[in-house]
Design goal:
The structure is a homodimer. The first copy, chain A, has a three-stranded antiparallel sheet with strand order 1-3-2. Chain A contains four helices and three strands, in the order αβααββα. Chain A is globular and about 60 Å long. Chain A is α+β, with helices and mostly antiparallel strands. Chain A has a single domain, classed as Winged helix-like DNA-binding domain superfamily/Winged helix DNA-binding domain (Arc Repressor Mutant, subunit A), CATH 1.10.10. At the A-B interface, helix 1 and helix 4 of A face helix 1 and helix 4 of B. Chain A binds a DNA duplex through helix 2, helix 3 and strand 3.
Chain lengths: 106, 106
DNA sequence: TTATATACATAGAGATACAAGGTATGAGAG
DNA sequence: CTCTCATACCTTGTATCTCTATGTATATAA
């Protein structure tokens, strides 16, 4: 049985979250948990590698902050990241329309 | 560099096409080529394995037809396939809304 | 003191889609 | 007549993607 992939367009989601405020990993997961359908929650094994890639690509920068004993690693969207967000958002919209065009074919 | 996956929800597209008329593989690809953004065109290496799985799952049945020397393998959506289409369509909508909910967060 | 929540991270496995290749026929160009 | 292109099928291997499972460590609540 073919198993549906629960998530795609993951970096789009991450970039989108960071476009509003700096966030740390655990917080992103919690936020998505609320916003997203629980069926599509993002897992740690998915998020952290993406954050690393975004950082290597220069789309995000990061800094650490100690809060009551625990170290949080905050991520900040760079100008380059903003461009990437715009591109991925546009691509998502094209994707969305393409699928819907087929679904609602005459 | 992370490479965007160009397609997902592939079986949804196939089932959707077949809900309107019986079709053969090459025709589906050509039809999607027109309807879909060319960037998301479905490749043969993607389609044929899916058709086989759908057949194994009993979602489609198939029959051959000879047309001017060339053999076409037509696929027909079964009742079970219709149910699967309904499910996948619903899931697509939930996915779509979930992504958009994050993108358009206040 | 034990469990739960917070917070990071990685390795391995399974799923997914594509590129690249193969077979074969028909039609049109030269 | 031959070569190429379009039609029509299909498979193998590779790259990529996401999750599961696991690991570390601290704070807080029971």
């Amino acid at each position: 049985m073919r198993q549906k992939q629960s998530l795609a367009h993951t970096s789009l989601l991450v970039l989108s979250l960071l476009s509003r405020q700096d966030m740390y990993g655990y917080q992103m997961i919690a936020t998505l948990e609320q916003r997203l359908d629980p069926a599509f929650s993002m897992k740690e094994g998915t998020l952290y590698p993406i954050l690393r890639e975004l950082e290597n690509a220069g789309a995000v920068s990061c800094y650490e902050q100690e809060v009551s004993g625990r170290t949080r690693k905050y991520y900040h969207l760079t100008r380059k990241g903003r461009r990437q967000l715009a591109e991925e958002q546009e691509q998502w919209e094209r994707y969305e329309h393409a699928i819907n065009a087929v679904l609602h074919m005459a």
